[in-house]
Amino acid sequence: MKQISIMLTLFVLSVSCNNDDDSNVPLPVEFNFTFETGTENWNSFFSDYPVGEEEFYELAFDHTNLPSPLDENVKALRISGNNHSDDLFSAVYRKFEGLKANTDYKITFDIELASNAPKNAFGVGGSPDLALGAGGVDFLLQNTVDDSNHYRPNFISKLQSGESNNILKVVGTIGVSDEIPTPFTLVNRNNLENPITLTSNDKGEIWLMIATDSGFEATTTLYYKSINIKFQ
Prior knowledge:
Number of helices: 0
Mean pLDDT: 88
Largest sheet: 7 strands, antiparallel
Distance between the termini: 23 Å
Structural class: mainly beta
């Protein structure tokens, strides 16, 4: 299937995106991102760390191959950070357009990702088995700077509590095995039985994201192999 990444499509079967902009999109609409040829307009967002410390925090986002022992011929999105602040927020996100303005949508995520986080291990500062949240906002994700010279997101994530909220639905954790050291393993995380309701803005836009909010004071690296999203 040819993959084009810009606007919501008029098709109701699995597609990526096309250049059509239609405010009366029939529902459900389904998007299937496999990252075989690129990022498909997904980006990274990091917050809750000191200004100018990107290198020290080893913040990274790229389109690359899955790691060993997985199939290294398969492409994925990699996001990684070393959480020195006990509070690093990391997300992949994408803008979706062409929706009806100021309208509620029930949205499901079906995510295949690779993680090497152990399930039941003691971590530095907190467990490496972080909650994984999926959801979004009706504005561009941006950082502000607080009085302590730290970046803060322009929304409240609350993911460290491990509980869902009106921005992010907890779809599981990133822990994949009790084995230590833990090999990178492919797992599925989804909210197919429990959609999150998000509201488009007055331009018919929503920014969707998949995120962690780390209390684990070490490195967390995730590879997103596929992301399926359905608007209902």
